[in-house]
Amino acid sequence: MNMYCIECPNGCFMEITDYEGKITVTGNKCKKGYVYALQEITAPMRTVCSTVKTCFRNIPRLPVRTSGSIPKEKIFEVMNEINKITVSENVSIGDIIINNVLNTGVDIIATSNTYES
């Protein structure tokens, strides 16, 4: 398998091989690339950015994101949970909109305010 590393500005092109359970990574210029490649092969993780509905006429959608990475295969399930939400109270950047979404240990947090600061 081949991939580009996105962990640092180097953008290394890496080759990952799995020979009888032994994973080898070549092409990475730093340790971050090796760790990223292993993560992508064994259990890929992603952050999710989206919006939720609000009850505020001047801010109909509020930008949100995950507070950390979630398993890649849960992205659509997490999006379903996000799409169920309508914010009806004022929130600030960093406020939790959904606590521990789908028992992932990750929260959905606001990335904007619903009022002018």
Concise account of the structure shown:
The chain has 2 domains: 2-42, no CATH class; 49-110, CPE0013-like (CPE0013-like fold, Roll). It is 18% helix and 37% strand. It has 2 helices and 10 strands, in the order βββαββββαβββ.
Summed over residues and divided by their number, the pLDDT gives a mean of 95
Unreliable stretches (pLDDT < 50, length at least 5) are none
Number of helices, counting only DSSP H or I runs of 4 residues or more: 2
Provide the gyration radius in Å: 18 Å
Major sheet:
5 strands, mixed
Which assembly state applies to the chains in this document? single chain
Give me the CATH superfamily of the largest domain.
Answer: CPE0013-like
Structure write-up:
- This protein is of the alpha+beta class.
- The chain folds into 2 domains: 2-42, no CATH class; 49-110, CPE0013-like (CPE0013-like fold), CATH 3.10.530.10.
- It has helices at 31-42, 75-83; strands at residues 2-4, 13-19, 22-26, 45-46, 49-56, 59-66, 70-71, 86-87, 96-98, 108-110.
- The chain has a 5-stranded mixed beta sheet with strand order 8-5-6-10-9.
- Strand 1 and strand 2 (13-19) form a beta hairpin.
- The longest helix has 12 residues, at 31-42.
- The radius of gyration is 18 Å and the shape is elongated.
- The model has no long low-confidence stretch (mean pLDDT 95).
